[in-house]
Amino acid sequence: MMEEVKEVTSTLSVDIQSIKVTEVVKDGDTLTFLIESEKLSGTGVYHVDRTYDDFEWLQQHLFSQEEVSGIQGVIFPPLPVKAQVNASAKVIKQLGILGLGEWQAYCKAMETFVRQIAAHSILGKNNAVEIFLTSSDPPGRQRVRKNIFNRLSQAMEGMRKEGHKDVDEFFQTERDHNLVFTGCAKTAAERFLDVVQTEQKIAVACGHFSTALRLCVEQGEDPDKLDFSKVCVKLSEVFDSIQKNVTSVAENNVSTLGLGLDLESRYQEAEKEMLYRRTCKLVELETTRRNAEKAKPVKKAAMEEVKKAAETEFDHISGVAKEEIARLQAARVKMLQQALVQWCEKQLLTAKESADQFNQHLQAFRGMA
Amino acid sequence: MAASSDRIPPPLPATEEPGAATPDMADGDSDEGEDIFVNNSVPVAVSRGVSQPDNVNEQTPDLFGEEEAGSTTAKSNGVHSDDDNDLFAEADVELNTPGGSAPKEPSSSSGLRPASSFTTSPAALQPTSLEQMEEDEAEDSFDVDVAVTNPEKVGDGMGAYVAYKVSTRTSLAMFRNKTFSVRRRFSDFLGLYEKLSVKQSLHGFIIPPPPEKSVVGMTKVKVGMDDPSSVEFVERRRGALERYLQRVVSHPSLLQDPDVREFLEREELPRAVSTQALSGAGFLKMINKASDAVNKMTIKMNESDTWFEDKFQEMENEEQQLRKLQAVVDSLVNHRKELCGSTAVFAKSMAILGNSEDNTALSRALSQLAEVEDKMEQLHQEQAASDFFIFAELLADYIRLIGAMRGCFDHRVRAWQRWQESQSTLQKKRESEAKLLWANKPDKLQQAKEEITEWESRVTQYEKDFDRIGMTVRKEVLRFEKEKAKDFKSQIMKYLDAMLQSQQRIVKFWEAFLPEAEAIA
């Protein structure tokens, strides 16, 4: 069926920047994503089709890399919630801006996910990535072995440990900040979604008005009635323009700032999860220390071993975490800058085009009078 | 006059030359001044006389002397059919110039004029002078500008009301000054409408309806005029009152009504009391009730002129279409308001995000973003107001106007019914005369003869009335169509202008923001 995933690090054979999710195909209830990537050797392009389960497979593989030291300090690129045809209200809410329209934004988000993984200094080396991008067989819908990041159990233990005081000021600050920021980012993304959805409603209403106006057109030769009919037709054209304008504005919103805020929000969550893992390790570490202290001489040596191992692991995790945090900070600023600039440029263009169109309509009306 | 009910209505240029003549028939105030008297048929002349020309200095030929009085019937409308005797009791319209020949017809026994002068052949007309009058009228036509401004709350508590400043600017001689203003309250406007309805609708004129009463709206205002919904309510009402007045003064016949002049000029108006009918949906209810009453009358109108039937149907269709449009516009306005709200909330969330942000340049950019969004919200607000005040109110006005039009059609039907009834009364009188002849009672016979003469005059008069109302209604309908196209056009241009300016401001906002976004290191 599919190749054995060797736990061997490998270098990716494709150009990361060329990775694209070109299309999504609806097959009954399933969504299939077509992914393209250029071979580094310059000899061609890989085309693969993947469903959400395949993406999850990839993620699980990465989660389960126990042998990689400090892996728990990695901020894992966040995978969007599973998209479904005819999704339930709950899923739609979770999807947020990604759930709009015909999955264009969602595809972009999936594409970003793959790129982030491929570009990651640790994650990108996992063979699973190569397989995901290049294997003509889907990596498989089989259940991967249970990973260390079983979210369910974490959530259950969760709340008590989250507030556990840190031993490192850097991390304490980072945790505090992240807590606040995660909330803000999520809220901003949600509020932006509200704006976009209202814009879409306006576009629909404009379309209705335009249609209703065309129905007002009278037949017959009465010149005054014709005059009014002409007015109705021209007005319906105006509202077609307005509809186009509002639709453009909404699309621009989604494709730039919308995606940006969504990604920001999910990355903050991902960082939160990482910090939490580290905090859990901290708690574990402190437990081993206590155990070592309290241990009876017979057990003492063993406990010391355990303690040392825990300390080492914790240090590795903290080391990786620091790097990851720095990386994230730089990356998100760049990402948001790009999003804001693109957003501004697109909206500026749309506004100029609309101004032109309205001007034309106005001239046409003046000509009619 | 034959008592048959299937007479052919007098021919009109409109029906005979649908192409060329119709627009000219529309109103004498048209700038074209084309020869609408091509067919020179009497009814056209009749209608010309009815819509009093503004150009009062032209010596109106005697032909119209009687007509003017005839056209200014006061109180009779179809509903009070026993007021026939008072038909010409009051000649209301006064022309302020000596040239105006509007003799005040003293109330004679039945005050009817002989039928002959109206049913004379076209040769009796002096077409040239009529055309002349038309052309002159076209130039001085709408030389009255009115504005309704400065709403101010007067008094306190539940007795408070809003007074509006009504300013007029005119070059017409019939007003005392060239520019003047008075303060009026809402019930004054309703009072004017009541008076006009009673007097003028008998002739088949479309009386523009005023805005409706609103207990909810006014209660809020009485409590305080500061909150946004009160402000919107007052502005909406002010706009509606202004449009109402503008429509009244742009109607050449209504402008001549002394009540209109009094409304515009007089310092203090007596408080109008009988304004209950016009609350909320009351206006349309009233029209519909009147329609029903007409339908229930036993003599059904045998419509020999399909123009009216067709037009009536068109009116109904048009009203339906406008209602649909209105519903869509309402939904659009609501969504725009929603957008204001969500934009404002979004702006706040971005401001908070900006505050929490460590990176300085990013933080500043996010704060700028929040400001841009705030400005957008302001724009959306204005956009919503524009949608509303321009389109929603326009549609509402025209739906009410169509209702008023239906009222005119009803008046015509009632005029027809009155004429039919008079014909059957005449018939009965003739029958009793015959019986009396046979029974040989000379006294009663004399009385019977007198009654027959009287009723013959009435029949003639009612037929004339009916024809005249028909003419007027036709004219009014055509005028309405013209005004409607003009109105919509001008509102749409206003709207487009506002949209254009909006977009240009948006362009400026984005141009200002771009460097901020690019500056993020």
What order do the SSEs of chain A take from the amino end to the carboxyl end, as H and E?
EEEHHHHHHHH
* Low-pLDDT residue intervals, each spanning 5 or more residues of chain A: 1-6
Rounded to the nearest angstrom, the distance between the terminal CA atoms of chain B is: 96 Å
Structural class by SSE content of chain B: mainly alpha
Number of helices of chain A: 8
pLDDT below 50 for ≥5 consecutive residues: which ranges of chain B? 1-6, 11-141
**What's the β-strand tally of chain B?**
3
User: Into which percent range does the helicity of residues of chain A fall?
Assistant: 55-70%
Strand neighbour order, sheet with most strands of chain B: 1-2-3
The secondary-structure element order of chain B is HHHHHHEEEHHHHHHHHH
- Overall mean pLDDT of chain B: 72
Residue share in β-strands of chain A? 5-15%
Strand count, sense and closure of the main sheet of chain A?
A: 3 strands, antiparallel
Oligomer: heterodimer
Q: Which outline of chain A best applies?
A: elongated
Which class best fits the helix and strand makeup of chain A? mainly alpha
- Please give the number of β-strands of chain A: 3
Largest sheet of chain B: 3 strands, antiparallel
Family (chain A): Belongs to the sorting nexin family.
Protein name (chain A): PX domain-containing protein
Domain PX (chain A): 1-140
Keywords (chain A): Protein transport, Transport
